Amino acid sequence: MLRIILGEPPRENTGVLAAAIDNMAQMASMLRTEMNAHEDRDHEYRKLEIWIRGLISSLDELEQSLFAASFFRKLVKAGYMDDMSVSEQGDYARYVYFYKNGFIRVFSLLDKLGTVLNSLYDLNTVRVKAHYSYYTVLRRFRSTKKHRELSGRLEEIKDSYRDPMQKLRGRRNAEIHYMNSEMQDDLWQRHQGLHDKIRLEDLDEHLEDLRQGLEMVCKTLVEVFTYSNEQLGKSLGKS
Prior knowledge:
Number of helices: 9
Number of strands: 0
Helix content: over 70%
Largest sheet: none
Order of helices and strands: HHHHHHHHH
Strand content: under 5%
């Protein structure tokens, strides 16, 4: 959608993004086939299908946010806020909007995935924490010692993206709980020199963190749904 608005051709899914979407779509299709063949008395399959289709939409929105932020970043040439034209200030504001939307969606999507995992594997994470996150679910996997093959893969992915995810989490927390992340940067600079011009944050570094966040999410989804499709296929084959 955003590519069309910005005059760009539609996205062609490739690489790990395509693999994530395909694996999620495969599980949704398996669930739909089972519901059509047999009654879904407790509506568990229907609930999972809705959640998984929601994950596909969330991943699409995350990728679009990164694309749009990158698009508007290219239009920002000045290194200081005071040196921007009115038009460039508008492009910078649009970059900030989509960048923020992106890093918020990284953690929102992961937490939705945590809900799916909690249901799929009967982890009962609510016993540990009423309002849990994806990372709480990972700890729950460890404590219950269930599905070690899957949880081990997810831990490896989490650890390999620790640095960019920590930076994204810090910005997400500042945005949601304290103040806008770019305002924090501005305040820090004002403390260094009251009358100095405000230098922009490193836009390319921030976008690279977001790109890695998207990559981490995609790899996580691939592992979850590759494994879960195998488990579901075995379960349906026995029924």
